[in-house]
Amino acid sequence: xxxxxxxxxxxxxxxxxxxxxxxxxxxxxxxxxxxxxxxxxxxxxxxxxxxxxxxxxxxxxxxxxxxxxxxxxxxxxxxxxxxxxxxxxxxxxxxxxxxxxxxxxxxxxxxxxxxxxxxxxxxxxxxxxxxxxxxxxxxxxxxxxxxxxxxxxxxxxxxxxxxxxxxxxxxxxxxxxxxxxxxxxxxxxxxxxxxxxxxxxxxxxxxxxxxxxxxxxxxxxxxxxxxxxxxxxxxxxxxxxxxxxxxxxxxxxxxxxxxxxxxxxxxxxxxxxxxxxxxxxxxxxxxxxxxxxxxxxxxxxxxxxxxxxxxxxxxxxxxxxxxxxxxxxxxxxxxxxxxxxxxxxxxxxxxxxxxxxxxxxxxxxxxxxxxxxxxxxxxxxxxxxxxxxxxxxxxxxxxxxxxxxxxxxxxxxxxxxxxxxxxxxxxxxxxxxxxxxxxxxxxxxxxxxxxxxxxxxxxxxxxxxxxxxxxxxxxxxx
Length: 478
Prior knowledge:
Blueprint: H1 2-18, E1 29-41, E2 47-57, E3 67-73, H2 86-97, E4 101-105, H3 139-160, E5 167-177, H4 179-189, H5 214-219, E6 251-257, E7 260-261, E8 276-281, E9 292-294, H6 297-307, E10 317-320, H7 321-332, E11 341-345, H8 352-357, H9 369-381, E12 401-405, E13 412-419, E14 426-430, E15 436-439, E16 448-451, E17 458-465, E18 470-477
Parallel strand pairs: 3-4, 3-5, 5-6, 6-8, 8-11
Antiparallel strand pairs: 1-2, 2-4, 7-10, 9-10, 12-13, 13-16, 14-15, 14-17, 17-18
């Protein structure tokens, strides 16, 4: 009897120490701050160095393919915000404690303000620089959003190509709040050529912003030394980075926290399995309306009622979380393949003045961080794949029935197409820095045997190329 009690106590303690995998915060972690993941030209023509923070668990027994990755994207109206903002930093820490590699990013901010003199005597309502949200046209919002999407792709490629982070490219997840959620939705679902808007291409040069915006909107926000120093042309953005290409990773899910879409993202896709979608929103959000409305509509109304301010000009229409949910249900009934969606909302109806007087009632916030986060942590956990086959596909080809085995391998690796019509293939094995270590000329006979005995233990990318297609697979050598 005593032995049974000891065994039960031991099993209970083990269960408590391990926790529910990918859900409970059980690991100690390490954090690296301000790592450069790339550089790019911002809206005003300046080359910006892009930074991220990374957190990793200590002592986790992860798959040979690596850990799942969570990319976290901050809000701030595409004018401000930081990778170290409150919720963002909490998610970085808490999901690393759950066993993920987590990264929060800074991305390019800023838009051209109007040449008109539009001023509000409420200089900073709800921590938003009111004057600076009067843009030269609504196109500026689309271009700011697209630059952020591009930078998210830069961050992902940097992270998965860095062996130290040990990331499983099959298991990528994204969390975004506010403008970061708008970016996250674009990063996840903007995957098809049909979704590349003309706004992302070359546009007419803007007029110089009005001088009243020089100090508050250019110098204070750190975009440049003055309006006079800005480059006013608007070049093609897609040529810099096309987010529909080189998607050699698989996104399994996204958490959109009071987010919205600025474009149709659900009628065209290249996914074999569309990533799940979790959304949270409050009905009294005055920054991003839960329904279909112009961005910042509540801020504008608040400023008008409290400060006799006029209209914020040149804001785009956006579909908030409830509008997205209704659109997904509509598309599902067509029927069209759509994301598996979970939508949570509150009954918070506190008005603008009430939110100013009681910030805890703010609609553009999370009512209970732990409750909401725990739910999408559980949703994410159900999607994590931990099989032995480590692979990821590019977006420019449909994955055929390809078998790569054994994986991990020791001395021999085999390629077999279980069913495929093309004839003639080449392969190469590259390290994560892109250096080719083994390659072949044209081969047709399958299975193809590859001698990998010369490769040190580690993670590599196997690339298979035909006349029409290209596929990437992550392989592990023991």
